[in-house]
Design a protein that fits this description.
Layout lengths: L3 H11 L11 E5 L2 E4 L4 E4 L2 H4 L8 H13 L10 H14 L3 E5 L2 H15 L7 E5 L8 H6 L3 H4 L9 E4 L4 H7 L4 E6 L2 E2 L5 E2 L2 H14 L2 E5 L23 E4 L10 E5 L20 H39 L4 E7 L2 E6 L4 H9 L2 E2 L1 E3 L3 E4 L7 H14 L1
Parallel strand pairs: 3-15, 5-6, 5-7, 7-10, 10-11
Antiparallel strand pairs: 1-2, 2-3, 4-12, 8-9, 11-12, 13-14, 14-17, 16-17
Helix pairs in contact: 3-10, 4-10, 10-12
Length: 391
C-alpha cells in the first residue's frame, strides 16, 4: 500500500477537488473500529455517514456478498432478481407501504420522488414543490433545488424553477405559502445536515392539516434518519407525519450503494413501464446486503438501538450539566444525535481524531453522532471519556 504522502499527491493530481480528506490511511475495519496503516485504532462514531449500520466486517454482510458474487454481480433490470424482490417484499412488510423503486443513492431517490409528483399532477395547476430552511436533499439539480442551504447552491444556479423554501417549524410560513398550486412538500422531520434539528409536533400537524385541505403529496426524506436509525423504522414515525412517499438510502445497503423510494396506495400506480429506471438500481449484491439489514432490524436490532440511545443520552446529559458553558443543547432520536456547542465544533472534531475517535461537525457548531447500531456500552464509555477531555 502507498503511504499517505503518495496517496495525497496522486489524489491531488487525479481527482476533481470535491472532498476534504482526513489525513489517514485506513487498512481495515472491524465492528465499530477503523484501523490505520500506522496501527491506530479509531472508534467510528460517524458510521460512514449513517451508512455502516452493522459496522465493519460484519459476518452476515460478508456472507451475503460472497454468496451473491458467486452467482452474479450484476444483471440487467430486464430480469427478475431473487434478492431484489426478496428485499422489496421485506421492506414493504415492515413499513406498510405499497410499492418500492430501487436507486443507487439518496439523491437519486429524491429525483425519483420529484418525477413521481410531476407525473401524478400532470395536466393540473399543481406545480410548486416545498422544502424548508436547513434542509439537505442531495446534490443533483432537482435535489439541489430542494436543498435550502446556500453553500451548496450558490455556484450552480439557475436551478430548477417552481421550488419554495419555507422556514422550518414556522406555522405562519406554511399557511402563507401552501395553496392549490402546491404539488409536493419535502420534509426531514430530523434534519441531519442542518444540525440534527427536530420538527415540532405543531409543525407536522399543520402540514398534515394543509395536505388534507389542498391534496398535495408529502415526501418524508428518511435518507439519514431511516432504516432504524432513530429507533423506529422511519424517523417520521416519531412525529406522525402523513407521508405518501419515503426516500431512503445510506443504511439500507449496509455499505454498498443502494437507495429506494416507497410509495403508498395513493401513488402506487403512477409510473408506467419506461417512465423511470436505473441501470444499477437494486444491484443484486447490494440487495443481498439490504436483506441482511432489514432481517436484523426485524429480529430485534431496533430494540438495541433504543437501549443504547437511552444509555448514550444519559451520559451526554451528565456532560451537559458538567459543562453548561460548553454544551448548549443535546437533541435527536435513537442513534442520530446532535450536540450543539457554544463555540465552533471543528476544533473538537480534530481533538477527538487525535484521541482516535471519529465524529463529525455540521452546521458549524453541532457535533453529529451516527454510530453503527452494533456499538456497545464500553464503546460509548470510551467516546464519552475522550469527548469530555476534548470539550
Amino acid at each position: 500500500m502507498k503511504d499517505l504522502n503518495e496517496l495525497v499527491n496522486t489524489e491531488d493530481q487525479d481527482f476533481f477537488h470535491t472532498y476534504k480528506r482526513l489525513k489517514v490511511v485506513i487498512e481495515r475495519g472491524d465492528g465499530c473500529y477503523l484501523f490505520t496503516d500506522k496501527g491506530e485504532k479509531i472508534l467510528d462514531m460517524f458510521g460512514g455517514l449513517a451508512v455502516n449500520v452493522l459496522g465493519y466486517n460484519h459476518p452476515k454482510i460478508n456472507a451475503a456478498i460472497e454468496d451473491q458474487v458467486k452467482r452474479y454481480v450484476h444483471i440487467s433490470n430486464l430480469f427478475y432478481q431473487e434478492k431484489q424482490i426478496a428485499l422489496a417484499d421485506k421492506i414493504l412488510q415492515l413499513t406498510g407501504f405499497s410499492k418500492v423503486f430501487f436507486s443507487n443513492s439518496g439523491t437519486e431517490s429524491v429525483e425519483a420522488a420529484i418525477k413521481l409528483i410531476r407525473k401524478y399532477f400532470l395536466g393540473t395547476n399543481k406545480k410548486t414543490l416545498i422544502s424548508f430552511t436547513g434542509s439537505f436533499h442531495g446534490r443533483t439539480i432537482g435535489a439541489l433545488s430542494l436543498t435550502a442551504r446556500r453553500k451548496y447552491r450558490d455556484q450552480f444556479e439557475p436551478l430548477m424553477p417552481g421550488v419554495k423554501h419555507l422556514e422550518f417549524n414556522s406555522l405562519s410560513d406554511l399557511e402563507d405559502n401552501i395553496n392549490d398550486d402546491t404539488a409536493g412538500v419535502f420534509v426531514e422531520c430530523i434534519q441531519g445536515e442542518g444540525g440534527v434539528n427536530m420538527a415540532t409536533d405543531a409543525f407536522i400537524t399543520k402540514i398534515n392539516e394543509l395536505k388534507e385541505k389542498y391534496g398535495f403529496i408529502v415526501v418524508a426524506d428518511e435518507i439519514q434518519s431511516g432504516v432504524g436509525r432513530t429507533g423506529k423504522m422511519h424517523g417520521f414515525e416519531h412525529f406522525g407525519l402523513d407521508a405518501d412517499i419515503v426516500t431512503l438510502a445510506k443504511g439500507i445497503g449496509g455499505g454498498l450503494p443502494l437507495g429506494a423510494i416507497l410509495g403508498n396506495e395513493r401513488v402506487k400506480n403512477v409510473f408506467s413501464v419506461g417512465e423511470h429506471g436505473s441501470t444499477f438500481g437494486g444491484n443484486p449484491v447490494a440487495a443481498a446486503c439490504g436483506l441482511v439489514i432489514f432481517t436484523e432490524l426485524e429480529n430485534g436490532l431496533m430494540d438495541k438501538v433504543n437501549r443504547l440511545s437511552e444509555y448514550l443520552f444519559a451520559k451526554l446529559n451528565i456532560m451537559k450539566s458538567k459543562f453548561p458553558e460548553k454544551i448548549k443543547d443535546i437533541r435527536g432520536k435513537g442513534l442520530m444525535i446532535g450536540i450543539e456547542l457554544n463555540s465552533p465544533g471543528q476544533p473538537v472534531v480534530e481533538k477527538m481524531m487525535q484521541k482516535e475517535v471519529l465524529v463529525n461537525c455540521t452546521n458549524e457548531n453541532v457535533i453529529r453522532l451516527l454510530p453503527p447500531y452494533i456499538i456497545a456500552e464500553n464503546d460509548i464509555d470510551l467516546f464519552i471519556d475522550r469527548f469530555s477531555d476534548s470539550v
